Please model this.
Amino acid sequence: MGGSAAAGKSVDGGGRAAQRVPVPEARPFLDTFRANLKETFFPDDPFRAVVRERGFGRRAAAALRYFFPFLEWAPAYRLGTFKSDLIAGITIASLAIPQGISYAKLANLPPILGLYSSFVPPLVYAMMGSSKDLAVGTVAVASLLIASMLGAEVSATENPALYLHLAFTATFFAGVIQASLGILRLGFIVDFLSHAAIVGFMGGAATVVCLQQLKGMLGLEHFTTSTDLVSVMRSVFSQTHQWRWESVVLGCGFLFFLLVTRFFSKRQPRFFWVSAAAPLTSVILGSLLVYFTHAENHGVQIIGNLKKGLNPISVTNLQFTPPYMMLALKTGLITGVIALAEGIAVGRSFAMFKNYHIDGNKEMIAIGTMNILGSFTSCYLTTGPFSRSAVNYNAGCKTAMSNVVMSLAVMVTLLFLTPLFHYTPLVVLSAIIMSAMLGLIDFPAAVHLWHVDKVDFCVCAGAYLGVVFGSVEMGLVVAVAISVLRVLLFVARPRTTVLGNVPDTNVYRRMDQYTTARAVPGVLVLRVDSPIYFANSGYLRERFTRWIDEDDERTSAKGETGVQYVVLDMGAVGSIDTSGTSMLDELKKTLDRRGIQIVLANPGSEIMKKLDSSKVLELIGHEWIFPTVGEAVAECDFVLHSHKPGMVVDGASHENMV
Amino acid sequence: MGGSAAAGKSVDGGGRAAQRVPVPEARPFLDTFRANLKETFFPDDPFRAVVRERGFGRRAAAALRYFFPFLEWAPAYRLGTFKSDLIAGITIASLAIPQGISYAKLANLPPILGLYSSFVPPLVYAMMGSSKDLAVGTVAVASLLIASMLGAEVSATENPALYLHLAFTATFFAGVIQASLGILRLGFIVDFLSHAAIVGFMGGAATVVCLQQLKGMLGLEHFTTSTDLVSVMRSVFSQTHQWRWESVVLGCGFLFFLLVTRFFSKRQPRFFWVSAAAPLTSVILGSLLVYFTHAENHGVQIIGNLKKGLNPISVTNLQFTPPYMMLALKTGLITGVIALAEGIAVGRSFAMFKNYHIDGNKEMIAIGTMNILGSFTSCYLTTGPFSRSAVNYNAGCKTAMSNVVMSLAVMVTLLFLTPLFHYTPLVVLSAIIMSAMLGLIDFPAAVHLWHVDKVDFCVCAGAYLGVVFGSVEMGLVVAVAISVLRVLLFVARPRTTVLGNVPDTNVYRRMDQYTTARAVPGVLVLRVDSPIYFANSGYLRERFTRWIDEDDERTSAKGETGVQYVVLDMGAVGSIDTSGTSMLDELKKTLDRRGIQIVLANPGSEIMKKLDSSKVLELIGHEWIFPTVGEAVAECDFVLHSHKPGMVVDGASHENMV
Model:
């Protein structure tokens, strides 16, 4: 590397411009601001396809294709593709009808709403969504959340009309929030729900939903409105005399049937349709059983009348007046974000399998629009549930047309088949929900988290316990709080390591990881693995001092020369703020008093800019900043060996020299 | 580096163990946990001095010396040192007496409390504090906060006894919280108040305090209890007919005098005592003026009677019962943390000048204890104010003995001299506060922030505007929120850069910073500057894909070969969680489908451990992980040139080959 020759030049103050770390030219503030804004909010450059086109007409067409992806695939749609989509659509419809009714009951809403919600939203999604595999429908967790959040203030049994209207309003707000997040390019907020948090949260929610099903399974009439384990257990065991054996037997039988079919389909993926058709089969069998045995007179509760006909318009039912608007807004916010997280995650997973691209923010606009339009037409919150989308994928869907098929099948049901559900026993719905929920408890994932990352496991366990023993919202807050705390702690307590030279090379490595790396006498090479921010500048100052003290103790015990140069490897320092530059300023002054020279290696361009504008560059001296640790150490080594140690230890004379 | 020879070996699957990146051995979970805990909470290894000693007696003595640093310096204390401390102590006493009275008025507390608070706490600090320069006393910002927070629920004029007791209780809680933060080693919470936040917050608080002084300066009897600019201006201009010219003239005169002396002392640091003595001089001059002109009968308000005697015991006055306990707790929490931040920052700054070490957590215990004991003896919240400590430092203090001298001087005042303050006009106190506050508005610091770091400037401006137009608490919340958001955004949107080879070396540099760096055909080297966490794993996956797409577009436009290897430089990735490992897993699978091989360079030991336990290491293949980018690219280059491109592009055959 020619270290000594180069170092000789730097002592006389020049001639080494080529090896200097450049200070980037100052760019106008607005340019930097615009570039940062783009990188933060448009990292995927979504309008590339639009901007590439020339002329207004072509651009408008490209923009239309951007917002309505079906314009892209519909013109080239062929019969062969349709056959695949038809099969997939009918399969998911047979799942959507019983699940829709079940989840609507879970949300304390009229069962018919589950069917309404499987009619309009899938049509909207088919036009606007970019996923080919997402199957639209209601989800259990959001349904439960609606029941618990709205139910805390408005009783679904005492004031069903208000409760229903609030559910529409919450759906409207959820849609508005989802679409806004997409339009404002704030999709990354959803990323703050980490995978670990979602595993714990979903497991907890599934547990809670299963517990709620004890009402239906045991045939109880009264039940707690709380969702936590303690309240539910107290409610169940305080009325053991009310348990109905007919209900228990029927429920357990169907649950067993559903679990066996699910297990079978999992083992034999060709027979995916067995588990997909099982819920509808259960509903039909259960209804026939009740119809012929008149079990409804023996304590087996049934759905009762379902109104025939398509979705009534509900836009006039939205409540935009106090005191309930805030409640609907809060419910919409939380359920909307959770539903969105599931929808986006599902869309991305399947896109990855089939190797196409999903634009998260555009998906948010699609899901948001579908909920807004849904809230106008008597639907409640929908998203892309994982289980149904997996069935869609396994059934061989090719485009979003499978959603249209499902929607049409539901339409036929609404128009002609609703009376058939009159005798469907509620306990079958409970069994359907429970069997779906048991699949959401992902125990192996939790074990995996424990093995790979203990903090992630804590996030997961926190979310689970928060949901099961507190409430769904509490679990969410706990999970997000631990996740954010982890990020903050990473920045507040960054790892600092001592680097050593790998013999016979110019390479410097962490001495704790690479056992062959050796320390250079008189030179301490330190590395920081995080940005230097206000949150860690105080810590880093103390930690650097402690490294130097420890090294001094070690060397003085051995009778070697102490530290005379501290080389900071800034390679992993991604950013620095004014607290960070002040810290370097102070560190430089403190080390000067101890006669130790501070040397920086490999700072990035942003760091150089900040050091320059804060005058710290001037203080340290541009000649003490090197592109690599190797060059920095070579320079230190050269100065150490070409002068008497006394001169270097004495800070004043050393400063004069440079 | 012998790249091709080494690469040749790796293809046949072995013999290169020395250059492999080692996977660290699994350590027992509890060991890792303990080590992390130590690094997080005891980064400064505070008990080193204690642990080093042998035998119980010596250890106990060392521990005692640790908690009571005066045991360290007192035995060796000499007369020469005392002379310096005596001068410094008397100087700060002459500042403490008028400031103490002024700030107590600001807190709507009886003026005598300002003197009480300068008697007991300094004695406690002298025993327990480790700073040699900190001068203990009350501060304006905390005083104002007490007035605004307690005053919002309890009126100081209508219910003075309750208000007083709540002030003691708040001080007690502040002390408990400060000491607990120290004992629980949570001192880093204070670090989350960044320098920028403090500049803005202090400036805003100083503005607000000055605005409050308009009451005294204009001689108004009634005044708003709000602190925001709008309320104060409305209050001032709605009662222009109440303005007293005598008060205005007197106030402006003294303010001018104080500012001139301060300006003079700043220019001539030898004459630091001029500005230090100016407040007491103003008080004496003002009192004499009122005494001889009987201005108290012409609308100039005076302090009135001050009780003679030392601090009465107030431990029985603490309120631990609802409904006011929560108010006191909240006030104590906020004022305690703010006072602590100032005290620690001041202690550290002066320790840096004199090159000795301050243990932040131990300081917190000292400040907390002094406030707990203070709350038992009729004192309200004290800390180490910057202005007074600067005077102490300039006056040549050598040890914490100067606090003892100040305390004794205040004791003499309390015992014999309080009647002298009877005629002190309130307007002089207002002038003293205003002149002190104007020094806190650090306009050049704000300009510096703008030049160095725009985000820090936003934090500063947010804190300032929040305090001035909202409330002190709001300013604090705004500042902390922007600061935390910045950290989160740094992690959520990390910078990714393309690295290029510096010709004739093995070194890879950012191509946007080092213009000489050149891309290697067929190999894309990407670098991430942050940990890979849940908050950015989605973003990074998209960003990586976009880099590859862009590179493909560029090369195909030129007719060159497209990307066949993506080398990820993990050198700056300090940590990874399970979302991060899943992202790499997905990325590997996606790139495999495109026939692109993923290669990792320079992962740290923690990363290797996570990759190993999550099986991603197995998926990518240990042979595709290299200690440096240079070696990684050499290997890719070797494979590229020793096989036909077709073989490499075809993912399947390539996988068979490795």
About this structure: Residues 325-354 of chain A form the longest helix (30 residues). The CA atoms of residues 508 and 654 of chain A lie 26 Å apart. The first strand of chain A starts at residue 496 and ends at 501. Confidence is low (pLDDT under 50) at residues 1-18, 644-658 of chain A.
